[in-house]
Design brief:
Its EC number is 2.1.1.113. It catalyses: a 2'-deoxycytidine in DNA + S-adenosyl-L-methionine = an N(4)-methyl-2'-deoxycytidine in DNA + S-adenosyl-L-homocysteine + H(+). This is site-specific DNA-methyltransferase (cytosine-N(4)-specific). GO terms for molecular function: DNA binding; site-specific DNA-methyltransferase (cytosine-N4-specific) activity. By secondary structure, this protein is α/β, with parallel strands linked by helices. It has two domains: 236 residues, 3-Layer(aba) Sandwich (Rossmann fold); 119 residues, no CATH class. Helices cover 41% and strands 16% of the residues. The protein contains 13 helices and eleven strands. A seven-stranded mixed beta sheet has the order 5-2-1-6-7-11-10, sandwiched between helices. A two-stranded antiparallel ribbon has the order 3-4. Strands 8-9 form a two-stranded antiparallel ribbon. Helix 1 crosses helix 2 and helix 5 packs antiparallel against helix 6. It starts with 31 loop residues before the first helix and ends with a strand.
């Protein structure tokens, strides 16, 4: 394992200059290159499923390769974003959109003269200074005046995605770490800088939106533990990367986007989304985890053993973390169980997941996944190391694979 490299081309860093893949910056997004390699292994007429859509990497790669795919996510913002990211756009309609954007920019000064809505983001001054924030609020009001609030209209969605990109680029968010952090100082922007930057972002996004997608991708709101949103649909290849068992908020980096687009209004809604996510716990979700208990499901012995070790660690949060790890793999086992009803004979599944460590106790995610898959009747179960994740020698990213012959 020590010879395995940290593959930057298998991380979010590779995505940022990749056309539509780089529309919004989110560090948890997995590598376009890795997904492309898995898509290339898929027979051309096969149908692909992505049960943890995230930023639509799998759906877009499949569409770029001329293939059909469906993606599922529990987060309505990501479903909206995925449908826009993988839509087919007409060049004349994009030109009309750009003219409307010019109107938005020209009307900006009049909105600076009124009081505008601002999102209820905790410590919002940490994100934007008191001079920049009113400019963003005024620009948002101008976009609403021209396009309305975010909707399923794919052209107005481009305007809103451009605003999201502007909002994050003018913030103090720092993406030089595994997860988003903050710069020491917020930057002050003047109105002309906001106008020019927004115009540049719109041009970059609309330029990549003109690229022709030969496949078709659908995005649906639903729970991956039950997969009820898929109806009777069946698939030939599952390509996905579920949340890792590391107790990070499922929507941590999505919060600013979701507040500004009104997919979130109150912090309680964020906690509810975290709770409904696989293994989710953060904020109010943590309180619910304390009362959680598993149903009578036979889970891998290796999982129960590591949970016992975490429970006995000398840390005040040991019981909570043991419960978290237990729930995470319980949720994934439920997902693998439900997935069987949506797989064609001979279907292949590929899951990109990382291992974790709690108080010095290594959680071998790939081995626990393998045990769950074996117990549920999957065949040809295996895993391979994709890359070394960071400086901690024991942390890796794996691709866990199996086939379904039921």
């Amino acid at each position: 394992m020590l010879s395995v490299k940290q593959r930057s081309d298998y991380t979010f860093r590779f995505n940022k200059e990749m056309g539509r893949h780089g529309w919004l910056r989110l560090t948890p997004a997995y590598s376009v290159k890795l997904v492309q390699e898995l898509v290339e292994e898929t027979p051309r007429r096969a149908r692909i499923l992505e049960p943890f859509s995230g930023t639509a990497t799998t759906g877009l790669c499949a569409s770029e390769s001329g293939m059909a795919s469906d993606s599922l996510d529990i987060n309505p913002f990501l479903v909206w974003f995925g449908n826009a990211k993988c839509a087919q756009f007409e060049e004349n309609e994009i030109e009309a959109l750009e003219a409307r954007i010019d109107r938005v920019i020209n009307n900006l000064p009049q909105f600076l003269e009124i009081e505008n809505w601002a999102p209820k983001i905790h410590n919002i001054e940490r994100w934007w200074c008191g001079h920049t924030l009113p400019l963003l609020c005024a620009l948002r009001s101008s976009i609403v005046d021209e396009f309305g609030e975010p909707s399923e209209n794919k052209y107005s969605s481009l305007a809103w995605i451009s605003f999201c990109r502007l909002m994050i680029e003018t913030s103090s968010a720092d993406f030089n770490h595994v997860s988003m952090s903050f710069k020491d100082k917020v930057t002050r922007y003047e109105i002309n800088q906001i106008k020019l930057l927004f115009k540049d972002i719109v041009e970059a996004i609309t330029f990549s939106a003109k690229s022709n997608l030969t496949g078709k991708a659908g995005f649906f709101l639903g729970d991956s533990r039950t997969l009820d949103a898929l109806g009777d649909n069946t698939y030939d290849h599952v390509i996905t990367s579920p949340p890792y068992p590391n107790r990070m908020s499922y929507i941590r980096e999505l919060r600013p986007y979701m507040y500004w687009t009104k997919f979130l209004n109150e912090k309680q809604e964020a906690g509810e989304l975290d709770w409904r996510a696989i293994g989710g716990t953060w904020g109010t979700a943590t309180s619910k985890l304390k009362d959680w208990a598993p149903d009578n499901v036979n889970l891998p012995e290796s999982l129960l053993a590591v949970c016992e070790k975490i429970l006995n660690a000398e840390n005040k949060n040991a019981e909570l973390m043991a419960r978290y790890v237990h729930k995470y793999f319980y949720d994934m086992h439920s997902h693998f169980s439900s997935l069987r009803n949506h797989l064609n004979h001979g279907a292949k599944i590929d899951y990109i997941v990382g291992n974790s460590s709690f108080y010095g106790n290594l959680v071998d995610s790939e081995q626990i996944f393998e045990s769950s898959l074996h117990s549920l009747g999957y065949k040809n179960v295996s895993s391979r190391i994709v890359r070394k994740r960071n400086s901690k020698k024991e942390l890796y990213e794996f691709c866990v694979s199996a086939t379904w012959n039921g």
